[in-house]
Structures are given as structure tokens and as C-alpha cells.
């Protein structure tokens, strides 16, 4: 593998690759629970002053009415992406009334499913569909795990890069096919090697006891009201996090070996009835309880640590968008909210992720088989629950090797790509970011998950008190820096525009919701 990566990097180094990559696009989606001052999930509606969660381009909600999702546009530079996210959080804090944004992925003070309000988006058919989908998730998986927050890293290469890369490889496929299949190959590698992300950046080694309720657990007790695993990195990515818990039984088998296979396998899952879901009443008290009784209601129900994506046009199905226009960007979804970063993620972390994506593109990416798929699932769960165990072995090619040995291999293989990204730069930011992550492999105590447990121990505090303390620190940082008048005016105008757009959509509906759903799923 090393020789292949080095050969590809060598070819690209002869071109003006750094200038070409200045045009790549980077975006972030950051989820964060609105909570009351005591840390309990907010029961209030999405603040009207933030605009419409249905139509606002940057401020919406995920599963819960209280789970804010802040979405940046795609920018060419990390600093612009982070600045937009910073501005958005400052605006949000200016509109909250006696509430704060929770600084960790895992929630606290959860009083059962009923305490997690499902998001609502208005009276339009599009709004009803979003809410009905969320009710369906609640019935299928429970509401609790839908209150978990994360950060999504969205990334795309410019067309000029793909033209250059295709020429250097001498690939004879047409341009669109080459781009999509290259992205799909990246996805396979990001799954193969993706366990490295929760090891380096996982920030959920402990949870609030209220999250588990009365459920049995193998986790250890931390003081009176918390649970943890001594070597955990990201319990969010483990078995207690978001999982398609009927995956084997329901026949979910998503195929990443080509774009067409991916589209076909997802399409099968969203069109095939599942007996257990057929037991769920479709309409109760006039409200739809799920969109359908199929294995998946829609494509997004399938949880994956990384997704190939295409920009949707109107109410277009994601599988159709991919089939029609190919892959436009990659969405990496395995990132915990970093409690030590007010934005939940840092520029150094983003630079490492960019170089990790480049490594995943440059490295060979053969198709999966059943054995490798099982190894991928085992590895991500093992790292999530005990990744800092110095004796942890992962599975590869039918054998086992120490996590730290495999991680060091990957870091070494990434070095050539970092040199490429740093080409002709005065400061070698990518190589520096790589070395800082390399240090975490030698010393697991440097990871965010280890730091969290160390801080909780030093302060003799529950997970709840740690998360509340960090949330209040971040709140102070944003409140002390209100937006200037011009930026504030733009955010306020966008909020007003989004409400008008929602009203226009509601006024324009001319068909019953059931007919709307039939039309949506009949797209071909």
C-alpha cells in the first residue's frame, strides 16, 4: 500500500496541486441540545426568533425539538467554516431565554422517552413528513438515543482536482463515473480505517445514569449518578449509541462496492416491508406514527459512520439524487462533540480529517466481503468501548494486531499526503496536526476521552457536573462576544425570510398528506 500511495502522491506533486485544493469545499453540521439551566432537556418550542426549522439554511433541528443542528455552507477554507459556525452560535445564544447549549454528545437529566420532545416543522406536507419520520424512529429505536449529538464533517474535491487525478492515474472511465466510484472507494476505506477517528477524537467515555434508566449495563458506576468504561473513547459510537438494532434480523445489508450497488441496496431497504414495523399503528389520533412499515422509512434512517451524498433538488429522494448526478461530497459522521472546544471541533482536528480523507482516497480500496464487513463492525465497537486499552487488538484480514501498531501504520502512510497538502506552505499545518495525533497513539492519556475522565476524577464530579461546567464555560465565551450590528441584522433577516418561506409552503399545499407521501415514494 505504501508504494501505491507514494507513487500517486509523487505524480500529484508535479502539478500545482496545492492551488487546486484551495478550491475544495468544507462544511460542518454541529448538533447541540438546548437544555434548561439545570441541564434537563428543554421542553420549550424551537425559538421563533431563530427562524423556521423547516426552511432556515443554517439553523434547524434534528430528531428532537430541543436538538439544534447548526449547518455551515461549504467554504474553501477552514477558518471561514469555523467563523460561520462561531457567528451562528453567537446569534443562537442571543435568542435563548434561560437556556444553554449542551457541550457534550451524551445528554443528561433524561426522564425517559417522554422527556424528549419530537421536532415539529409546521403544518405543511413536507413538515408533517419530517415529524412523522421522527415518530417512526421513536417507535423503532426509542427516543433516548435520538437525543445524542454529534458533529458531521462534509468534504468535496473541486472538479479540477478530479480531472488532474484521473489524468495522473490514466483512468479511462468517463469523468462522472470516475468521480463517483472514487468517492465510494473513499467511503470503503473510511469504514476500514475509521476506528481511528473515535480513538483520536472520541469524547464520550462516560454517561449520565438517567440515559440508561432501568436498563441493565456492563458499564461501571462512577460516583452515584454516572457510568463509564475505563478505556472507552466514544460510547456514542458503541452499542448504546445510535444503531440500526434490527440490522441483521431485518435484512439491512447496504452494499458499498459500487455506487449502483449502494443505491440499489438502500432502495431495497426503503421499499421492503418488515413484519415488526407493520405492527406499529400507521395513524393514531390523526397523527402519522411512521412514514411506512418498511425496513427503513427513508434513506437517512440507515446509520453509517460515513455517507456518500448528493445535493437534493426539492423533495428529491437521496437515492435518486445519487443515481442521477453521482456523488457530490462525503459526510463523515463519527465525530463526537468535543467538550473542550466551544465549537465542538477545532481547526487542527479538521486538518487531520482532511489528510485522513486524502489517505482514504489515495490508498487502494478493494471491494468488501462478508468477513471484512464483520471485522469493520467489530473494530468500531471495540475502539468505542475500550480503545485506550494498551492491549486492545483489532481484526484485519482474518488475523489480529494491536491497535497502536495499526494506528502507527496509518499515521506513517498519511505522511506523504500531508506533505502534499503542505506543499510550498510557509507553515506545515497538516504535518503538525498529524504529529499531534501521532502523540495520542503513544500516550492515550492525551485523548479527549482520557482527559474527560481525568478531569472528572480530579474534580470528584459526576458526568453531569462536568458537562454542565463545560457548557456554562462555552456559554460565557459566546455571550461575551455578541455579533456586530451588520451580522446580527443578516441573521435576523434570514430568520424572517425562513418563516415567510415556511408560510408560503404551507399556503401552497394542495393535496392531502397521504397523497403527498405516495408521490414522494413513487419517484423514479
CATH topology: Creatine Kinase, Chain A, domain 2
Query: Low-confidence parts lasting 5 or more residues at pLDDT below 50?
Result: none
Count of DSSP-assigned helices: 20
- Report the sheet-strand fraction: 5-15%
Q: Could you give the count of β-strands? A: 14
What is the radius of gyration computed over CA atoms, rounded to a whole number of angstroms? 23 Å
Q: What shape does the CA trace take?
A: globular
Q: How would you characterize the overall build of this protein?
A:
The chain has 524 residues and is of the alpha+beta class. It has a single domain, classed as Creatine Kinase, Chain A, domain 2 (2-Layer Sandwich). Helices cover 47% and strands 12% of the residues. Strands 1, 2, 3, 4, 5, 11 and 12 form a 7-stranded antiparallel beta sheet that branches. A 3-stranded antiparallel beta sheet has the order 6-8-7. Strands 9-10 form a two-stranded antiparallel sheet. The longest helix has 24 residues. The two termini are 40 Å apart. The model has no long low-confidence stretch (mean pLDDT 95).
Amino acid at each position: 500500500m505504501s508504494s501505491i500511495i507514494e507513487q500517486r502522491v509523487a505524480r500529484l506533486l508535479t502539478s500545482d496541486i496545492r492551488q487546486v485544493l484551495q478550491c475544495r469545499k468544507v462544511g460542518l453540521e454541529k448538533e447541540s441540545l438546548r437544555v434548561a439551566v439545570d441541564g434537563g432537556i428543554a421542553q420549550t418550542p424551537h425559538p421563533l426568533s431563530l427562524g423556521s426549522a423547516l426552511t432556515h439554511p443554517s439553523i434547524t433541528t434534528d430528531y428532537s425539538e430541543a436538538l439544534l443542528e447548526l449547518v455551515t455552507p461549504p467554504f474553501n477554507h477552514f477558518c471561514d467554516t469555523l467563523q460561520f459556525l462561531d457567528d451562528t452560535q453567537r446569534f443562537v445564544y442571543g435568542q435563548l431565554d434561560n437556556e444553554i447549549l449542551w457541550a457534550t454528545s451524551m445528554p443528561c437529566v433524561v426522564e425517559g422517552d417522554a422527556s424528549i420532545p419530537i421536532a415539529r416543522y409546521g403544518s405543511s406536507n413536507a413538515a408533517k413528513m419530517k415529524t412523522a419520520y421522527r415518530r417512526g424512529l421513536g417507535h423503532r429505536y426509542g427516543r433516548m438515543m435520538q437525543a445524542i449529538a454529534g458533529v458531521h464533517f462534509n468534504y468535496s474535491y473541486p472538479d479540477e482536482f478530479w480531472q488532474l487525478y484521473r489524468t495522473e492515474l490514466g483512468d479511462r472511465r468517463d469523468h462522472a463515473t470516475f468521480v463517483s466510484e472514487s468517492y465510494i472507494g473513499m467511503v470503503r476505506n473510511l469504514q476500514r480505517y475509521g476506528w481511528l477517528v473515535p480513538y483520536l477524537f472520541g469524547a464520550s467515555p462516560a454517561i449520565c445514569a438517567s440515559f440508561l434508566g432501568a436498563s441493565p449495563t456492563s458499564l461501571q458506576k462512577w460516583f452515584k449518578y454516572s457510568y463509564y468504561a475505563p478505556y472507552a473513547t466514544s460510547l456514542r459510537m458503541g452499542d448504546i449509541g445510535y444503531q440500526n438494532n434490527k440490522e441483521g434480523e431485518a435484512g439491512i445489508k447496504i452494499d458499498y462496492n459500487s455506487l449502483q450497488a449502494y443505491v440499489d441496496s438502500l432502495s431495497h431497504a426503503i421499499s421492503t416491508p418488515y413484519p415488526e414495523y407493520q405492527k406499529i399503528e400507521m395513524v393514531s389520533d390523526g397523527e402519522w406514527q411512521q412514514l411506512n412499515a418498511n425496513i427503513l422509512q427513508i434513506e437517512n434512517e440507515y446509520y453509517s459512520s460515513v455517507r456518500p451524498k448528493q445535493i437534493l433538488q426539492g423533495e428529491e429522494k437521496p437515492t435518486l439524487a445519487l443515481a442521477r448526478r453521482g456523488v457530490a461530497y462525503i459526510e463523515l459522521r463519527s465525530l463526537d462533540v468535543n467538550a473542550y472546544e466551544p465549537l465542538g471541533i477545532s481547526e487542527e482536528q479538521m486538518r487531520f480529517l482532511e489528510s485522513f480523507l486524502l489517505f482514504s482516497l489515495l490508498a487502494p480500496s478493494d471491494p468488501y466481503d462478508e468477513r471484512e464487513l464483520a471485522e469493520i463492525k467489530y473494530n468500531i465497537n471495540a475502539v468505542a468501548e475500550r480503545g485506550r486499552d494498551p492491549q486492545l487488538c483489532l481484526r484485519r484480514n482474518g488475523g489480529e494486531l494491536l491497535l497502536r501498531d495499526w494506528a502507527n501504520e496509518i499515521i506513517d502512510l498519511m505522511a506523504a499526503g500531508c506533505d502534499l497538502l503542505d506543499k510550498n506552505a510557509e507553515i506545515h499545518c497538516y504535518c503538525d496536526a498529524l504529529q499531534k495525533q501521532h502523540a495520542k497513539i503513544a500516550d492515550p492519556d492525551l485523548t479527549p476521552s482520557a482527559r474527560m475522565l481525568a478531569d472528572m476524577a480530579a474534580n470528584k464530579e459526576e458526568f453531569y457536573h462536568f458537562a454542565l461546567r463545560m457548557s456554562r464555560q462555552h456559554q460565557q465565551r459566546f455571550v461575551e462576544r455578541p455579533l456586530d450590528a451588520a451580522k446580527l441584522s443578516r441573521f435576523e433577516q434570514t430568520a424572517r425570510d425562513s418563516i415567510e418561506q415556511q408560510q408560503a409552503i404551507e399556503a401552497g399545499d394542495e393535496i392531502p398528506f397521504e397523497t403527498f407521501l405516495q408521490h414522494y415514494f413513487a419517484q423514479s
